[in-house]
Amino acid sequence: MHTDLELLKIPEAILQNMHIVWTFLLLMTRFTGFFIVVPGLGAGIMGLAVRMPAIIVLAYASLLSSPEAPLPPDWGIVIASVVTELLFGMVLGLVPYLIVAGAQTAGQLAGTSMGLGQAQLIDPTSGGTVTELSKLYGDLVILVFLLLGGHHVAVYAVSGLGGDVIPGTFQLQGVTLELLINRSADIFRVGMLLSAPVVVALLLTQFVMGLISKAVPSINIFVVSFPITAGIGLTLTLIALPSATAFIARQTTTIENVVVLISEQTKKVEQVPH
Q1: For each of the chain's 274 residues, which pLDDT tens digit applies?
Q2: What is the dihedral of CA 101, 107, 108, 111, to 10 degrees?
Q3: Is there a domain that residue 273 lies in?
Q4: 250 lies in a domain?
């Protein structure tokens, strides 16, 4: 009988602490958006079922230090708060993902120049097709991101910087929007810088092959050019790999400043009126 009475008190306790339940739901929404996008720790929407235990644990750990979100007075604010928290998590996960996208762009450019586009792999993160070299560059960035502890910085920012960010207050505007635009533009900059040695060398190779085909028309240049082009491209990729890794590491170290700046801007946003 005593146990039954305690069980009947559970709904009453939940109703009395709805602000805590609401804060926990917002934190779960934030981590869900983060895990959808972040590389290395996520694999798209389909993998959320596998990562749900981590989302629940991280949301509970963040709840212990997070400020409580006020209860919304109507359903409009409920929907707006959930959307902003999902967007906040996705924005923080998008920062390292854009570096991966830049490296994959470099691999796509170099692989296409080598003629490796004939055989493509399925990227489980985006669901699209990428060349082998693009997949290799993307995995390299993810390894560097994890080895340098970038996921620790990102998770700390998603948790609210130790309790400084009030759940439901994120707004995509001002400095945050400018940062995302600049990081999106860096996809092409990183792609061109990483693929430049291979692309330039292969352009010169194709130029020489054109001269040879004119000088010796009997040579089947299409048969000869493919192994030469692929061999030169892969050799240069291997030679440039240490420099590419160092460049990626420098790009990864900028993640901390970006995610902290986004979170700091969120702290400055006033609480939405309820």
Answers
A1: 445 555 555 555 555 567 777 788 888 888 888 888 887 765 555 666 778 888 888 888 888 777 777 777 778 878 888 888 888 888 888 888 888 888 888 888 887 777 766 555 555 555 556 677 787 888 888 888 888 887 887 888 777 766 567 777 777 667 777 777 887 888 888 888 888 888 888 888 888 887 887 777 777 777 777 778 888 888 888 888 888 888 888 877 777 777 777 766 666 554 444 4
A2: -170
A3: no
A4: yes
Please give the tally of structural domains in the chain: 1
pTM over 0.90: no
User: Dmax over Cα atoms in the chain, in whole Å?
Assistant: 100
Would you list the DSSP string of the chain?
A: -HHHHHHHHHHHHHHHTHHHHHHHHHHHHHHHHHHHH-TTT---GGGHHHHHHHHHHHHHHHHTTSPPPPPPSSHHHHHHHHHHHHHHHHHHHHHHHHHHHHHHHHHHHHHHHHTGGGSEEE-TTT-SEEEHHHHHHHHHHHHHHHHTTHHHHHHHHHTTTTTTSPTT-----THHHHHHHHHHHHHHHHHHHHHHHHHHHHHHHHHHHHHHHHH-TTS-HHHHHHHHHHHHHHHHHHHHHHHHHHHHHHHHHHHHHHHHHHHHHHHHSPPPP-
Neighbours of 250 (CB within 10 A): 10
Q: Which domain holds residue 102?
A: 2-268
CA 23 to CA 20: how far, in whole Å?
A: 5
